[in-house]
Amino acid sequence: MNPTWANDAIFYHIYPLGLCGAPPRNDFGAAPVPRLEQLYPWLDHIQGLGATALYLGPLFESTAHGYDTADYFQLDRRLGDRATLAAFAREVHRRGLRLVLDGVFNHVGRDFWAFRGLQANRQHSPYAGWFQGVDFGRTSPYGDAFGYEGWNGHYDLVKLNLGHPEVRAHLFEAVRGWVEEFEIDGLRLDAADVIPEDFLAALAGHCRGLRGDFWLMGEMVHGDYRRLANPRLLHATTNYEAYKSLYSSHNDRNYFELAYALNRQSGRAGLYRDLALYTFADNHDVDRLASSLHNPAHLYPAYLLLFSMPGIPSIYYGSEWGTAGRRTAHSDTGLRPAFSLQGAPRPHPDLAGVIAHLARLRQSSTALRRGDYVELLVVAEQLAFWRAHAEGAMLVAVNASAAPAALRLRLPVRQGRLRDCLNPGESFVIENYQVVLAPIAAYWGRILAVEE
Fold first, then answer.
1. Whole-model pTM above 0.85?
2. For 359-408, what is each residue's pLDDT tens digit?
3. Cβ atoms within 10 Å, residue 222
4. Distance between CA 445 and CA 277 in Å, rounded?
């Protein structure tokens, strides 16, 4: 059984160590504090937005930010213990939400128990083969009596030797425990683009053996997404090409950039037209959309596009209210703030309601979720496209301009009526394959159902 549920999903993404206000560094001698319980009040809000799946960033015992794992078998004590996560997972599933966790398998932190064993026993350690590039002929930047490979030059992130059978067995057993105890529905694989493909293939086979509808999505910034998203490896990757085009096409008054990306990926000859890639406007690693856009009014057409273009849309916590946040050269803290549901900053308080409406439209339309993509028109600040499926068709038109727009479009159907699902009560007539959409409000758009 394939994880087709993911193709129809809308994700809500939380970075728990940030949202729950965990201390920036772990005290491994401290008792667990169940901060994860702060997420319970968010579940009503998440479902009210129309999300159907929850993606939680790194949860397991780590030194600092969660991507420096110390123990794959324990919840980070700053968030609680395994019972804390098990109870929360039960409530997530009771509500009918899917649960996806971060799988951080490319590297571990220096507090990882096996790395500590290597530090203590050096050449005599049974774990010397667990890590990449271990060399007892040199010292590490941290003064260890051996060198090793750090991820992307960061020596606080120790690269695992994913070809080592004991490492694989350890990681696969951890995943088995997460599936059996927390009933997780999938994993987002951190740094998947630098993980050996034979490991990903083995992991995919292991996960399929645990449950047939398990979803695997890999973080991939550059390159051909088909290298990882294919029947042998993963079901999807992050879509950074669409992410970049989504904000910069608004900033540059250049919808040609986004149109090019959508055509290249999902058009008639699109590279990824048979894939459902993970699409997003922002996440825990990049500036929030409200900080990336030069004009805050563009939040609205940007989210309209996110929910109507091909892909699996994701909302990053707080961005549904236009929360700002920037990363610095040395810190991602500004992207991962702590706040309660009631205390969350809401510079654009009506945006969440707009997103909820867009989510309802997407969930009610097979064409928006799974339909083909056909570009109808692109100019500097207007874009129109057609989403067609055997169960119906939808026309999407977006206006990023400060003034209302009028568009004359040629459609794939000769006659009929277009009912506006985004602006109720409005409709347009198709005559001889032509329709005139006027007006399209400034910084807004239309999502129209085809009625013959």
1. yes
2. 999 999 999 999 999 999 999 999 999 999 999 999 999 999 999 999 99
3. 8
4. 24
Give the pLDDT mean for 133-155.
Answer: 97
CA distances from 206 to 199, 309, 355 (A): 10, 32, 36
Q: In this structure, are strands 53-56 and 405-410 parallel, antiparallel, or unpaired?
A: unpaired
Helix H or strand E encompassing 168: helix 165-182
Which ranges in 234-342 belong to alpha helices (H)?
Answer: 240-251, 255-266, 289-292, 299-308
Q: Which residues contact 193 (CB under 8 A, 6 or more apart)?
A: 218, 219, 220, 221, 222, 223, 228
Query: Within 10 Å of residue 294's Cβ, how many Cβ atoms?
Result: 10
Contact at 8 Å (CB) between 71 and 112?
yes
**237: number of Cβ within 10 Å:** 28
Phi and psi, residue 428, nearest 5°: -140, 150
Residue with tokens 């005139």: 436
- The domains found in the chain, sorted by start residue, are 4-131+161-368 (3.20.20.80), 371-451 (2.60.40.1180)
Residue labelled with tokens 């301009």: 401
Spatial separation of the C-alpha atoms in residues 251 and 17, rounded to whole Å = 32
d(CA 149, CA 163): 15
Q: What is the pLDDT of residues 295-326, one digit of tens each?
A: 999 999 999 999 999 999 999 999 999 999 99
Angle at 390 between CA 385 and CA 396, to 5 degrees: 20
Average pLDDT over residues 181-203: 98
Average pLDDT over every residue of 283-291: 98
Class of residue 57 by CB neighbours under 10 A (exposed 0-12, middle 13-18, buried 19+): buried
Confidence label for 2 from pLDDT (cuts 50, 70 and 90): low
Mean pLDDT across the stretch 172-176? 98
- Find the mean pLDDT for residues 248-260: 98
Distance between CA atoms of residues 325 and 181, nearest Å: 35
pLDDT score for 83: 98
Task: Say if CB 404 and CB 444 are below 8 A apart.
Answer: no
Cβ neighbors of 220 (< 8 A, separation 6 or more) are: 192, 193, 227, 228, 237, 238, 240
Helix then strand count (H, E) for the chain reads 12, 21
